[in-house]
From TrEMBL:
Residues found modified as 4-aspartylphosphate: 53
Protein name listed in UniProt: Response regulator
Alphabetic keyword roster: Phosphoprotein
Organism: Allochromatium tepidum
Regions annotated as coiled coil: none
PROSITE patterns: RESPONSE_REGULATORY
Length: 122
């Protein structure tokens, strides 16, 4: 059975690019347009990894990480931040909130898939 990855980004075209790379590697993909949308879609379905942007309207990625970690079903779900941000303070805030890894845009699909394969839950 395919593993499910949630991609959270306010850019539809970017969600599409990431989704194509992940689907091509055999993953199922759920898309969310911001943190609020992502939380609404976390309905108990098993999610093996969450890939999230940092800068989004309604709820940013770092706040989202903190909110996900409060949910019993998703407390241990790994979260990869995929963002244009590269400041150490932002990385530290994400790590403190519970993010497992950080990848800077633009990215190469093999880099993303390598990170995903290391982080995705069994």
């Amino acid at each position: 059975m395919a593993k499910t990855i949630m991609v959270v980004d306010d850019s539809a075209s970017f969600r599409s690019v990431v989704g194509i790379a992940l689907k091509g590697a055999g993953y199922d993909v759920i898309e969310a347009c911001d943190g609020r949308d992502a939380l609404a879609k976390l309905n108990g379905t098993k999610i093996h990894l969450i890939v999230s942007d940092v800068n989004m309207p309604n709820m940013d990625g770092i706040t989202l990480v903190g909110e996900i970690k409060k949910l019993p079903n998703y407390r241990f779900t790994p979260i990869l931040m995929l963002t244009t941000e590269s400041q150490p303070e932002k990385k530290e805030a994400a790590r403190a909130a519970g993010a497992k890894a950080w990848l800077v845009k633009p990215f190469q699909p093999p880099m993303l898939l390598d990170a995903v394969s290391k982080l995705v839950l069994p």
